[in-house]
């Protein structure tokens, strides 16, 4: 008896660690050696490679592949059909498919990645960052940054609750939850309350 749910059409290989109350839906494949936290939700057709670590309360929507070298911290949201990569210079005739070939991607606590966005390997997405749908992330994203475009660039800032922040000078107060933020420079803000 398990304390998590796996749909009958999903494949979970031996040697996977899955936390309680996690739900793995239709046609998913979780490879041996993956570690998945508690209270996660994996939509239809999600693939998780060996060696991947996924934190608690992570939501991965339909058609997402989480390749070796990717780490998702707690409360990460991966929108439908978003893409992770793990090799910077892929070539069919020069296979690069060992863990030494993969570049790490770290998605920190609370980050949202929108539908059809692409995260090129080697990037770190800071806490509570918000990647817009269709964006292509090619470099690190600061905490709380709202990034969009190809390549993704900072377009603004997002509160932990997900609403866009409006700064008056160097301060912002979220109109939804009331959290307050201080802008330290053009690429860095921090929550002050």
Task: Summarize it.
This protein has strands at 5-6, 11-12, 17-18, 23-24, 29-30, 35-36, 41-42, 47-48, 53-54, 59-60, 65-66, 70-72, 77-78, 83-84, 105-107, 112-113, 118-119, 124-125, 130-131, 136-137, 145-148, 153-157, 167-168, 171-173, 180-185, 188-191. It is an all-beta fold.
Task: Give an account of the 3D structure.
Strand 21 and strand 22 (153-157) form a beta hairpin. This protein has 193 residues and is mainly β. The mean pLDDT is 96. Helices cover 0% and strands 34% of the residues. The N and C termini lie far apart (43 Å). The strands form five sheets. It has a nine-stranded mixed sheet with strand order 1-4-7-10-13-16-19-21-22, with no helix packed on it. The radius of gyration is 17 Å and the shape is globular.
Helix-strand layout with pairing:
Elements: E1 5-6, E2 11-12, E3 17-18, E4 23-24, E5 29-30, E6 35-36, E7 41-42, E8 47-48, E9 53-54, E10 59-60, E11 65-66, E12 70-72, E13 77-78, E14 83-84, E15 105-107, E16 112-113, E17 118-119, E18 124-125, E19 130-131, E20 136-137, E21 145-148, E22 153-157, E23 167-168, E24 171-173, E25 180-185, E26 188-191
Parallel strand pairs: 1-4, 2-5, 3-6, 4-7, 5-8, 6-9, 7-10, 8-11, 9-12, 10-13, 12-15, 13-16, 14-17, 15-18, 16-19, 17-20, 19-21
Antiparallel strand pairs: 21-22, 23-24, 24-25, 25-26
């Amino acid at each position: 008896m398990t304390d998590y749910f796996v749909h009958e059409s999903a494949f979970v290989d031996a040697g996977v660690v899955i936390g309680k109350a996690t739900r793995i839906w239709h046609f998913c494949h979780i490879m041996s050696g993956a570690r998945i936290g508690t209270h996660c939700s994996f939509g239809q057709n999600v693939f998780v490679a060996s060696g991947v670590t996924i934190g608690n309360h992570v939501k991965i929507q339909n058609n997402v592949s989480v390749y070796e070298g990717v780490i998702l911290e707690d409360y990460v949201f991966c929108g439908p059909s978003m893409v992770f990569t793990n090799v910077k210079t892929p070539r069919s005739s020069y296979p690069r498919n060992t863990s030494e070939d993969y570049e790490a991607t770290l998605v920190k606590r609370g980050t949202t990645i929108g539908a059809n966005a692409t995260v090129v390997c080697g990037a770190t997405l800071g806490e509570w960052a918000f990647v817009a749908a269709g964006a292509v992330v090619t470099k690190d994203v600061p905490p709380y940054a709202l990034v969009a475009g190809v390549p993704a660039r900072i377009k603004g800032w997002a509160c932990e609750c997900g609403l866009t922040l409006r700064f008056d000078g160097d301060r912002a107060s979220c109109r939804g939850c009331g959290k307050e933020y201080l802008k330290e420079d053009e690429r860095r803000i921090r929550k002050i309350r």
